[in-house]
Write a structure and sequence with these properties.
This protein has four helices and seven strands, in the order αβααββββββα. It is of the alpha+beta class. The chain folds into two domains: 114 residues, PH-domain like, CATH 2.30.29; 51 residues.
Length: 176
């Protein structure tokens, strides 16, 4: 990205009360994935060979199937990581842009004045919802309960800042 685009992007963020990208967390990186599949393959090869030598050769095929299923499960999990949610509160609206695992986008523009953030701090399974005009939009379904609560607190604070009259003595977000 050239410097003018970086400057434009930075000034664009500076005008926001809140701007965040949410994505699912995967604790196993690519190197760990290769090591895990290698271990599972070796363990199944050893078990399969032992059964082969005992005369139960069909078990060997099931050991190979086991490795394939573990690999497929992790690939599916990594595919889920493509999902993203972008939340931005600027002077005009709160915009939520959701990108699913196929890359399809859906965008919601909400008027911040009427917006209510709902996330029950006591309930671990409680979703984070934005309520406006009797309708709810669920955010961060893939986040942990702690992350949802922190996001809710951040959104509430940003909405509070947005609702303050100009010149109320609030410092800009980027100098906080």
């Amino acid at each position: 990205m050239d410097q003018s685009a970086q400057h434009q992007s930075a000034s664009h963020r500076a005008n926001a009360f809140f701007d965040i990208e949410l994505k699912p967390y995967r604790s196993l990186g690519p190197r760990g994935f290769v090591l895990l599949i290698g271990f599972v393959a070796l363990a199944n090869l050893g078990a399969g060979m032992a059964f082969w030598l005992l005369g139960a050769w069909p078990v060997f095929a099931f050991c190979g199937l086991d490795v394939l299923l573990v690999w497929a499960a992790f690939k599916f999990s990594y595919r889920q990581q493509r999902a993203r949610e972008f939340i931005r509160l600027d002077a005009d609206a709160l915009v939520v842009r959701r990108v699913d695992i196929q890359g399809r986008e859906k965008t919601w523009r909400l008027q911040p004045y009427w917006l209510r953030v709902d996330c029950d701090a006591e309930d671990e399974s409680a979703p984070l919802r934005l309520w406006s005009h009797g309708r709810a939009l669920t955010l961060g379904a893939f986040l942990s309960p702690d992350e949802r609560r922190r996001l809710a607190e951040g959104l509430r604070e940003a909405l509070w800042r947005w609702r303050q009259p100009p010149g109320a003595g609030l410092r800009p977000l980027d100098t906080a």
